[in-house]
């Protein structure tokens, strides 16, 4: 997907809006994600923390799990927003989940608070991922 400036702006806003409902009482670091399915549906996700920090779920995984649990498994792109000076990048667990459900060449847009953007792909984020092992 070669996102137009308008599509990229919409993706930024959807990811930023998702961050606005993050549950982050411990880190105070909201992250939002907007996952666009091939059928055009948008699945937003935010990070959801837990006092047992290992049980925290990231925004990217929240969006993907919402989509998969709704029966959607083919995706076009994802935007990830952090209230940061520079674009943020998914953690290792999120990279592996992206690799499980998304094509390697799927665009990933990483956004900062002021709209700085870094465009990459799922394959560039995790080139040596586990895939199709079963």
Automatic annotation (TrEMBL):
GO terms for cellular component: cytosol. It is an enzyme of class 3 (hydrolase). Its cofactor is Zn(2+). Keywords: Hydrolase, Metal-binding, Zinc. One of its GO terms (biological process) is pyrimidine-containing compound metabolic process. Residues 6-133 form the CMP/dCMP-type deaminase domain. Zn(2+) binds at residues 58, 91, 94. Its EC number is 3.5.4.5. PROSITE patterns: CYT_DCMP_DEAMINASES_1, CYT_DCMP_DEAMINASES_2. GO terms for molecular function: cytidine deaminase activity; identical protein binding; zinc ion binding. SUPFAM superfamilies: Cytidine deaminase-like. CDD domains: cytidine_deaminase (cd01283). It comes from the Bacteria. Gene3D superfamilies: Cytidine Deaminase, domain 2. The keyword Acetylation does not apply. The active site is at residue 60. InterPro entries: APOBEC/CMP_deaminase_Zn-bd, CMP_dCMP_dom, Cyt/Deoxycyt_deaminase, Cyt_deam_tetra, Cytidine_deaminase-like. It catalyses: 2'-deoxycytidine + H2O + H(+) = 2'-deoxyuridine + NH4(+); cytidine + H2O + H(+) = uridine + NH4(+). It holds the Pfam family dCMP_cyt_deam_1. This enzyme scavenges exogenous and endogenous cytidine and 2'-deoxycytidine for UMP synthesis. Belongs to the cytidine and deoxycytidylate deaminase family. This is Cytidine deaminase. It comes from Pseudolactococcus insecticola. The lineage of its organism: Bacteria, Bacillati, Bacillota, Bacilli, Lactobacillales.
